């Protein structure tokens, strides 16, 4: 139905009316800078930036209950700009008008309850939020929808000659960036991605190539790619599409909004389990729940459990020791986890110290646990990637070690589609994963096709069928 029809029925105007005063705000020196510029770090001190609405308090003219009603009703209206993450327009990026929103089908991914067998194996009831059902098959589309909508609005307002969108990636960021950039006019926008050579799956590599991006592979790991794009962003006129760009974080906050909405806005007993990676996603989720509490939509902040591979665990080490130091990474099947110095860590640190001091925990898991858990989850009706396996494995370990109590509501973030990482499954089944991964195939999880003659009787015998 149209917004006017809905207003006649309910008396509620669901279209955005808020007038924001948005700026970049430095997380260190608190300097403010106009949002009309393409900025990624503070010009005054070089620290990371947040996108803030200095008129956020005006949103309190509606009660939390009214906002819950507005967000729920928006699902039923025919407004293209609010179909995806911009359903939460006032909280995502209200600087972008609805007519400039780029929507490719992202957001509102399902929350799937684990079946009793998987729940018993993990040690508690849980949900999996399958963000692999986004357009480019990963959660990165949330941030890319806000970033490219921001860029679209910037292009419409400023009419620059041409902009190059660029990112460093372990796979998913490049796929999302190339897809969303390809939707904008080719005369205005080009796209390029930097990848660590040999450390991106063939499926992920095919995505930016298919979307027409210029793909550059360099020796090293993600951190090496990130250093180069950071230098390019500081020196040249480019649009950085990594989570260092705060407008990316704005879109990824929608994960928190959706989880709260899908749980009927009841989050006091919730624990969200998130793989850390470059720390942009966990930053966004923490910020998103803070937004909802400030707005009165939720009363209490949930708990958040971060998970890292033992092969790349700087945030877990910080949480246990109080001291942060970058680490040298080892190969990981959860390739997005292979980041030894997460760009967004300073934001995580600030959010935890201010809002989540007692409610943010972090655990590490082995590569063996990641693979075994991914395969086990998929045996029970899920479509979980290696990072999703990392999250569920982290919940299982946290329950086993008493880090979290088993009587809470658990939502595990599966960040990508399992088919992007099918090569790791194939290598597991063939027991050909390199020694550096420290993974051994378990017979009960190995599954291979069987060659049989085209005869019903022999196939029936192999399947253990009995005649009627």
Q: What does this 3D model show about the protein?
A:
It is built from 17 helices and 13 strands. With 468 residues, it is of the alpha/beta class. Among the domains are: 212 residues, Rossmann fold; 106 residues, 3-Layer(aba) Sandwich (Rossmann fold), CATH 3.40.50. The strands form 3 sheets. The chain has a 6-stranded mixed beta sheet with strand order 4-5-13-10-11-12, with helices on both faces. The radius of gyration is 22 Å and the shape is globular. The chain starts with a helix and ends in a 6-residue tail after the last helix. The relative contact order is 0.11. The model has no long low-confidence stretch (mean pLDDT 95).
For the terminal residues, how far apart are their CA atoms? 54 Å
Enter the CATH topology name of one domain. Answer: Rossmann fold
N-to-C series of helices and strands: HEEEHHEHEHEHEHEHEHHEHEHHEHHEHH
Number of strands: 13
Low-confidence stretches: none
Question: What is the typical, i.e. mean, pLDDT?
Answer: 95
Strand percentage = 5-15%
Radius of gyration: 22 Å
| Inertia-based shape | globular
* Class from helix and strand fractions: alpha/beta
Q: Can you tell me the CATH class of one domain?
A: Alpha Beta
Enumerate how many helices there are, as a single number. Answer: 17
Biggest β-sheet description: 6 strands, mixed
In the CATH hierarchy, what is the architecture of one domain at level 2?
3-Layer(aba) Sandwich
Strand order of the largest sheet: 4-5-13-10-11-12
Helix-residue proportion? 25-40%
